[in-house]
Amino acid sequence: MSSSPRISRRTAIRGAVLVGVGAAAAGGTVLTSNLAHADAARPTIASCAEWGARSPRGLTQLTNNPNKIVIHHTATSNSAGTTKQDAYNLAYQIQGWHMNPPNNWADSGQHFTISRGGYVMEGRHTSLQHLDDGRGMVQGAHAPGANSNGIGIENEGLFTSALPPEALWNSLVDFCAYICSQYNIPATEIFGHRDYVATACPGDALYAKLPQLRTEVKAKLDGGGGDPPDFSVIVDNTAGDFGASESWGTSTYSSQKHGSDYRFAQPEAVSDAAYFRANIPAAGNYKIETWYPADPGYNAATPFIIYTANGNQTVKVDQRTGGGKWVSLGTHALTAGNKSVVAVSRWAGGSGYVVADAIRVTSA
Which residues form a coiled coil (predicted)? Predict the structure, then answer.
């Protein structure tokens, strides 16, 4: 599904969008990963399969969309490990508590879990697919009165007096913004478990921070991951915002070059990329393009690394053809600031020079 420029992605994009297919046919561009969804950037979310969940015993799939988010705490140790494996162990342990006697539930009760290290994980099977599609939900078992219309998020720790660590809090804000964006849920509709049943959950300290959570999520939805203000910049390899080591040569050979020259290097399995920086005015979705001269002796799969809000995304470009024009590298969610946006890597397969000439970044 494609979206028209300047239309909010909240209503225009549902599901992963593969951008640049036309450029692939005409300019040899192949995306190696899915792009971002919706207004808010999609965080990395480990599926049940990734953390090694047991099979559920039967789940109820609902056609209605959720209209709220319900915040929980796990009431576990505040000194637990913060690695990815620690997070996966937590998810597995919670599923055991919920599926084993005396609960005997069909699966993990909550839809998602966030660890103290900030890792976001699917809790109940099919929750992630519904979320990424922006359609329907699986009935939960996390809060009576909200199981059929609220997304339950467990946060690792005991927050009666202690506050969540920074990594967890930042992930919670980003993830709530993504949920709200996918399902069109207002940031005001974020609640605590105790709002639906007599319980100490999610702890006095975390419950007191829910107004701040709503405020930070709303800020994300208002301008931290959607359509940025009109912006366009071209960074040529001769600009001060370009950087490369002495291993990158300079050439004026091709008439298809952008500006006066371009940079080239032999492909090699080394960390020696050429970097393009840009001052991104606001977090949001941006179209990124590259200009390069094409030649049969250049590389067939030059890796372009895009530093997105969701982590590094790699786009491989066949620089043997399609040069002398702007070639799409896709539309990506970027964070604000003056920083590296694109790197051209020498870590390419095959033979033929990898080329770094110019990039263009435009608000989507």
Answer: none
- Residue 151 makes CB contacts below 8 A (sequence gap 6+) with 66, 68, 69, 70, 111, 112, 127, 131, 137, 140, 179, 183
Question: Omega into 202 within 30° of 0, i.e. cis?
Answer: yes
Determine the length of the chain.
Answer: 364
**136: Cβ contacts below 8 Å, ≥ 6 apart:** 61, 62, 63, 64, 65, 130
Domain ranges of the chain: 9-39+228-363, 45-223
pLDDT digits (tens, 9 = 90+) for 303-338: 999 998 767 889 999 999 999 999 999 888 888 889
Instruction: Work out the pLDDT band at 252, boundaries 50, 70, 90.
Output: very high
What CATH number labels 45-223?
A: 3.40.80.10
Nearest to 48, CA basis, from 115, 116, 117, 108: 108
What pTM, to 2 d.p., does this model score?
0.55
> Is the Cβ–Cβ distance between 168 and 86 less than 8 Å?
no
Report the distance separating Cα 125 and Cα 67, nearest Å.
19
Q: Which helix (H) or strand (E) holds 49?
A: helix 48-51
Query: Do the beta carbons of residue 335 and residue 306 sit within 8 Å?
Result: no
**Superfamily name and number for 9-39+228-363:** Galactose-binding domain-like (2.60.120.260)
